[in-house]
Amino acid sequence: MKSNIALTPVKSHQLAAYGYDEASQTLAITFNNKNGTSLPYHYPCTPEVFAEMQAAESKGKFFNSRILKNPDMPATKMVPDAA
User: Fold this and answer.
1) What pLDDT score was predicted for residue 73?
2) Taken in order 44, 49, 55, 57, is the CA torsion positive or negative?
3) Who is most buried in 8, 29, 30, 46, counting CB within 10 A?
4) How far apart are CA 50 and CA 24, in angstroms?
5) Which of 58, 46, 53, 45 shows the shortest CA–CA distance to 14?
6) Helix, strand, or coil here: 61?
7) Sign of the CA dihedral 32, 15, 43, 69?
8) Would you give per-residue pLDDT tens digits along the chain (83 residues)?
9) Which letter, b or e, does each residue of 57-71 get, where b requires 16 or more Cβ atoms within 10 Å of its Cβ?
């Protein structure tokens, strides 16, 4: 399944970019890793939590404290569509 959510680059040691689809209430995040940037991960996310993330000074700290281990926001790793 391919991610169709537009991503905005972010200055962070952990996150590479993030975006939000309000219709499906889905947060998409790519991460910095040793090979460059990860494939997107999708998280169920309310508009309120996304607004808090946008306002956070540190997106990585916000992600770690509010999303990463939140059982109500399980990650779905997106994979490239087969050619």
Assistant:
1) 96
2) negative
3) 29
4) 13
5) 58
6) helix
7) positive
8) 567 899 999 999 999 999 999 999 999 999 999 888 888 999 999 999 999 999 999 999 999 999 998 999 999 999 876 55
9) eebbebbeeebeeee
| Burial of 43: CB neighbours in 10 Å, binned 0-12, 13-18, 19+ | buried
**In the chain, how long is the greatest CA-to-CA distance?**
39
Rg of the chain over Cα atoms, rounded to whole angstroms, equals 12
Domain ranges of the chain: 8-77
59 vs 12: CA distance, rounded Å: 7
Query: What pTM does this model have?
Result: 0.90
Token pair in block for residue 47: 């508009």
